[in-house]
Amino acid sequence: MSQEPVDVLIIGAGAAGAAFAWSMAETRMDILCLEQGDWVKHDDYPGLRMDWEARQFGDFAFSPNVRCRREDYPVNDAGSPIQVANFNAVGGSTILYAAHFPRFHPADFRTRTLDGVGDDWPIDYTTLAPYYDVNARMMGVSGLAGDPMYPPDKQVPLPPVPLGKLGETLARGFNRLGWHWWPSDSAITTAEYEGRAPCINAGTCLLGCPQGAKASSDVTYWPPAIRKGVRVATRCRVREITVDERGMADGVIYYDGDGKECRQRAHVVVVAGNGIGTPRLLLNSRSRQFPEGLANRSGLVGKRLMFHPYAMVTGIFPERLQGYKGPSGCSIISQEFYETDPARGFARGYSFEMLRGFGPVSTAMLGLTAGRMPHGEGHHRAFDELWDRTAGMVAICEDLPETTNTVTLDPELKDADGIPAPRITYRLSENSRAMLEHAVARGKEVLAAAGAGDFMVQAPLPVAGWHLMGTACMGVDPAKSVVNERGRTHDVKNLFIIDGSIFTTAAGVNPTNTIQALALYIADTMKKNLANLFD
Amino acid sequence: MTAAATPAAGLGAEERRALVCVLDALIPPSPDGRRPGAGQAGAAAYVENVLRTLPDLRTMVVEGLRELDEQARGLHGRAFASCSEPERAVLVAAQPFGYALVPHAYIGYYQQGSVLEALGLEARPPHPQGHVMTENDLSLLAPVRARSKRYRDC
């Protein structure tokens, strides 16, 4: 890299970093993004090979501790019932995400005022609504207008993904109970869109999309951002953000792909490392001015970690459902139990999201995990009872921020470059436990209404730490938050954070749409305030 | 949470032959004969690749295969691979290493083209052909559309 400072240095090329870079590109400033992973060649995606399902247990596993690629950093999550899931590449975790793309509700920004829990955000739904719209256009979101769970102005550019026999079977179950359901907002192209091919219903979304129909940010935001002059340097792992004598961020020290220590100076540093990577980096960035970690005078960097505790309920049906067809994580959503109802015994709520069925390998492994798939005699009979007869649903439960749920630095574990790794300390709250219990009962109820005769349950789902939030939270009070309402850290005036770590609360939906809307909003406020950005 | 180990060596010819028999014991042919056993189907190649990357499991399997052979010779007077299917099933059931192989046997088996065809699928990966799906029946949404707004203003 050049010894000259860049105008804007972005750390992390995932969902947030890409959206932010694209928005800032119009300024024609010198913008550089450092990404510890590499570009994923679409020919390398497992869905093109016979062993595609096996790869979820190896180099395309959700857990970095299983993948063990060089670009991955290990995570000590032994102290958590939920394991961290991510992917380190240009595109970040959007490479493996389901692309379920709901928005937050207006009430999600006012949980303290409305329900007496969590904290109110310093911004509201109407602040983000225009950026949700931009994001829908840029990512190519499919869905259907008119959902009574959302304000009526929510629009998406593409028609919904196919429900298929499985989705329609479950929809009938919801209708029998009179419960809400709606076709999922999905960041998946259902028709030719902006040069992207349409989804072919291959069902490999969680292992990457060779078709390019799933909106990972390497195929959506990065190409136009790069055409406008933004540079992405891959296999560059940032060790620490450095500060000058005035306490302003002045650049980073990173390791290149050969493990060589390098220096990059910058006028503005923007962190987009996700809810685990960002606090890890800040805590590793200790200096005389910031002995407890950069931008951590509040002591809240790494605290208030929120996952979405998942309850997974799988129904076993008498008939075949063709569930191996279609986007694997997206068909219909139900928010019947989303808004707070004190009679339920917990605050806040959850979304139900219907999953598809499973491929043969996943069916066998699901059965094995559930103790329903013996080897030897009886194996084939047991397999046939599950094969293409399962319909899964997950409840995405809103987690509440608690300072005892943390990301800290592990005293021993390090990545391949010797940088201290994150350690997760997390316990399920009583509120989350009650919500999970409610969701399991309601999940069984609706699956039974749809025709399921038997069930398999995992709650909390251990391998579901996809949504990493809250560890550098947004707020107006520097003593109670890490960044202000514009994403700028309270303590360092040229340091911004734009990923899920700035979430004040978690809501009960997948966060990527809101992460990107926030990144676009922060970029826009920066562009509007360039003259007094550091005031 | 450790870096990937240096790949271990593959199995010898005799060990491989025994592994195929073990896999057939873990997933035998289906009673109707339409689905092959895991060994017949070719799952051993996948399992052997796994063993190359998991040296501890490889050691356990190699020692287990040797013990199986010794037991077979002691009980039946011939090598494990030469025993009958019922004899092999009994021997494998008594071997703890068999349980460690089960998930790998399942993963190796259900990716084989002959197995996919027996399940009624095409023997191909999902991409690039994908799958055809029916049009959505959005009339199912009528009762949901009939309800009033469900979100809270604030």
Description:
The complex is a heterodimer of chains A (535) and B (154). Chain A is an alpha/beta fold. Chain A has a domain at 6-157 and 184-305 and 401-427 and 464-532: 3-Layer(bba) Sandwich (FAD/NAD(P)-binding domain). Chain A has helices spanning 15-25, 64-67, 111-115, 125-139, 164-177, 222-227, 274-284, 360-369, 379-386, 430-450, 512-528, and strands spanning 6-11, 31-34, 76-79, 182-183, 231-233, 237-243, 249-255, 261-271, 310-316, 332-334, 350-354, 390-397, 406-414, 420-425, 454-458, 495-497. In chain A, strands 1, 2, 5, 6, 7, 8 and 16 form a 7-stranded mixed β-sheet that branches. In chain A, strands 4-10-11-12-9-15 form a 6-stranded antiparallel β-sheet, with helices on one face. A 3-stranded mixed β-sheet of chain A has the order 3-14-13. In chain A, strand 7 (249-255) and strand 8 (261-271) form a beta hairpin. Chain A is globular. The mean pLDDT of chain A is 97. Chain B has 154 residues and is mainly α. Chain B has one domain. In chain B, 55% of the residues lie in helices and 0% in strands. Chain B contains 8 helices and no strands. Chain B has helices spanning 13-26, 38-41, 43-53, 55-76, 85-93, 96-109, 113-118, 142-145. In chain B, helix 1 crosses helix 5 (85-93), helix 3 packs across helix 6 (96-109) and helix 4 (55-76) crosses helix 6. Chain B is elongated, with a radius of gyration of 23 Å. The model of chain B is unreliable at 1-5 (pLDDT under 50).
